[in-house]
Amino acid sequence: MYLFKKLGLKKEEVISIVGGGGKTTTLFILADELRNLNKRVLVTTTTAIFSPKEEEYDYYFLGKLEYFTPKEGSITIFGNRIEEGKLKGPSSIEIEEIVEKNIFDFILIEADGSKGKPIKAPNDYEPVIPKCTTKTIGVIGLDSFEKRIDHIVHRPEKFIEITNSNYSDTIDADIIIKLIFHPEGLFKEARGEKILLLNKASNQYYSFKGNEIRNKLLEKGFKGSVLVSDIKTKKFY
């Protein structure tokens, strides 16, 4: 199954991705699918991401995107500079200016960082989601289940405050649901349609837990879509 179909994408979208649990992988899998559909795709960040591999893009720009028209079926990487091996992104205003140029069909933005952790709470200054965003994807890694908060969470001090938990508590469905619903949680500053991606459902246990969360969210009136998936293998449950 293709991710772009599950996301219900329209002809043109600005998609911001937040959370943990495989944001960058999700970003580039989606970009590659759209490139194969002959779309012009921009991949960028409002924070920082590891510089991508050469096979993951067709164009790579630092600084300004002036006098440039991408070919159909291409991925363009855009950032301001490279710092400590990471691509530092443009401001939200710069991204909005790029949208106005109308040279890309899809703009995909990694809008916060997680230090490789599967689950996180946002800091005071994040995420950075441009106003032009049409969909916000919040990612949580199901491999965080039954792991201690102080071992598995990025920004645990914010996390325990948001979820009313303790450092020694282990991640369960109720804690994840608190993170999703809290205004300072996973979907803080979200714009457009909310899509929750419960990722890394790599075995029966994780897929079961993902569906448990989905059912509880629907019961509680979550206003958005919920996908249970193992993005690397493109399996959805």
Could you estimate the helical fraction of the residues in percent? 25-40%
Question: What structural class should be given to the helix and strand makeup?
Answer: alpha/beta
Supply the number of structural domains: 1
Mean pLDDT: 95
Number of strands: 14
Estimate the global geometry from the Cα principal axes.
globular
- CATH fold title: Rossmann fold
The CATH architecture term is 3-Layer(aba) Sandwich
State the helix count.
Answer: 7
Cα Rg: 17 Å
Strands of the widest sheet, in order across it, are: 4-5-2-8-1-10-12-13-14
Order of helices and strands: HEHEEEEEEHEEEHEHHEHEE
Q: What is the CATH class?
A: Alpha Beta
Poorly predicted regions are none
Percentage of residues in strands = 25-35%
Cα end-to-end separation: 10 Å
- Main pleated-sheet profile: 9 strands, mixed
InterPro entries: YqeC
Protein name: Probable selenium-dependent hydroxylase accessory protein YqeC
Organism: Tepidimicrobium xylanilyticum
Pfam families: YqeC (PF19842)
